[in-house]
User: Fold these one by one.
Assistant:
Number 1:
Amino acid sequence: MLKIQAKEIIGGDLSATTKMPCKSFNLPAWECKTGSKLSKVKGSSCYDCYAKKGNYTRFPSVKKAQYKRLGQLFNPAWVDAMVSLIESEVKRINEPIFRWHDAGDIQSINHLKNIVSVANKTPGVKHWIPTQENKMVNDFIKAGGVVPDNLIIRVSASMVNGKPPKNAKYTSTVHTTKKVIGYECPAYKQDAQCLECRACWDTKIKNVSYKQH
């Protein structure tokens, strides 16, 4: 599939952030299922959401592009288009990693099924999804869904300084204190960049804790 065709199918190009070593795929944070509720709860990890500020809102074209991608999620060719773009990105950066949702979150079990299909079709790529949709993930698994080994779904703690969800294989937390659970993301010491760190994609790391910013 040509890159221009793949972009048309998914609703635009992959997203790029200054922090990440690779491009990502994002959706409008306003459409998060659980996150939109948590964003109204003071002290939650979604309160004052970064994906509803900065470039995400400063430029109308960014938000418009996110909603276009949202509308294309269930295009029959979406999986193959994502595979094509991810393979192109991996080749560009010469590293087999991909991050899902630098903004937004899983929309439904069918959406998760499509992401799993993409991971299955790119077995040499390490995929990482941060999510608040713990129930959605568990419902997918209870229904017989299998999360491939190259896909890390890190379920996020709902509250800042809260404990990681118990019924998730991989998790993440947000901290403001010196008490860190598991591995502390070093980005806040590195000009908000991953640099050489790949902890979020590492199956040996159960919980990644991010310093609130």
Note: The chain has a mean pLDDT of 92.
Number 2:
Amino acid sequence: MKIPEDYIEFLYWFKTETETYWEIKPNSKADDYLNESWIRGAKWVGLEEDEIEKIESKYNISFSSEHKEFLKILHALDKKHPVEFYDDNDEICVEEDSFFYNWLTDEQEIKDTLYWPYREIFHDVKKGVWLKSWKERPKSENEIEKIFSDWYNKAPKLIPIHAHRFVVSGLDEIKSPVLSVWGSDTIVYGWSMKHYLLNELKGYLDLFESVYDNDDKSWHSKPIKELQEFQNKEWELAKKKMIPYWSELINLHKF
């Protein structure tokens, strides 16, 4: 197994590896963990250059170069992910969500998700979260939102990619960090698209091996050496990296 160094080559490799994995049909009930039924046979559906340009214009956003290449080769799956929830009558309902956001079909969901970071982070700000750069916290909620809104609008824009993961756009860098945003509990989920994809979908890649632990006398799954070295290198480089504005929020809960 060799994870390609070149980013474009990596994206095509990633496409082949995941689609091949999703073709696996479990031989028994015990193998169901291999592939949930909804994702079996799934394929990635890429975008054309002109489609990407129209999307940027429609939503008034700008994809980073790394994100654009992801959209051209991968973008979204041709299958929906069923999500169960309880309605007001405590009955189980099922809705189908895009696994990765489809910019051609998920208009309302994308519009809502573009606003998600502002809404969820400000919810925590109202409850007491406050950054040092904002200086003294005012008593008026209107003043609090004004300070937060000014900070948020100056920060690099967050572009949704999957669930509550967002690609940081507007940076003068080749690589695009991806954040996981859950209110003020915001973390880096990948320091590049490559790093992010290997984190997010590692369960669909043949990048783990079983090892026997003599101490507890059981088998465990661990990343293969190549993946572990790549991850270690990314996190080591990350010690010197900062994301304008967002790093202060990311470091807020570190001890």
Note: The radius of gyration is 20 Å.
